Amino acid sequence: DADNPNHVYKLKKALYGLKQAPRAWYGMLSSFLLSQDFSKGSVDPTLFIRRNGNDLLLMSMMGKISFFFGLQISQNPRGIFINQSKYAIESLKKYGFESCDPVDTPMARPTEKHVHAVKRIFRYLRGTVNRGLSYQKDSSVALTAFADADHAGFQDTRRSTSGSVQFLGERLISWSSKRQ
Fold first, then answer.
1. Do 75 and 123 fall within a single domain?
2. 77 with 121, same domain?
C-alpha cells in the first residue's frame, strides 16, 4: 500500500494454489451443505446426504465418461485406461515441441544448462503421451500401502527423506517422496 508502506495486512482468505486452499474450500462447502440440511456420511465425512421424506432421486446414465478433471478415460470390456495424452500434446504444442524426437528417459545425461534439460523433458513427454494407468476388471481391488523414511539420511544437511506408494490391486494409484 503506497499510503501505508510500513503496514502488513493479514489476508482472511485462502489463495488458490496454496496448500491450505483445499481445506478452506472444503470448510466453506461443508458449512454451506450442513446449513442446507445435508448431513455428513458416517463412514466418509466428504460424502453429504440429504433426506427428504420418502422422495426418490431419479438418475440417468448420460453415457460413458471420456474426460474427468483433465484425465482421459477409456473403457472397454477388459477394464479402464486413464491417461493425460490430450494435456501432454497441448503442452508440447504450446512450447513448440509437438514434432520433436522422443527420448526414453527424462534426463539420462543432465547438464548445467537448464534449457537443454527442459528440452529433454519435453522430448521425453513427446515419447510418452499415450502412456497411462490401466485397471483390469478381473484384478484385485485390495488397497495396499507402503511407506518408508530415513532419519537425517542426507549427509550435507542431515535432512530426512520419506516416501510412500499406494496400490489398488496391482495398480499404482498414488505416490509421494519428500525431503523433510
1. yes
2. yes
DSSP assigned state of 143: E
Average pLDDT over residues 18-41: 90
Helix axes of 114-127 and 85-94: crossing angle, nearest 10 degrees:
140
Which pTM does this prediction carry?
Answer: 0.43
Range of the domain at 129: 67-135
pLDDT per residue over 115-128, tens digit each? 777 788 888 888 88
Residue 32 and residue 90 share a domain: no
Integer angstrom CA distances of residue 141 from 132, 134, 136, 137? 18, 13, 10, 9
Count of structural domains, the chain: 3
Cβ atoms 92, 122 nearer than 8 A: yes
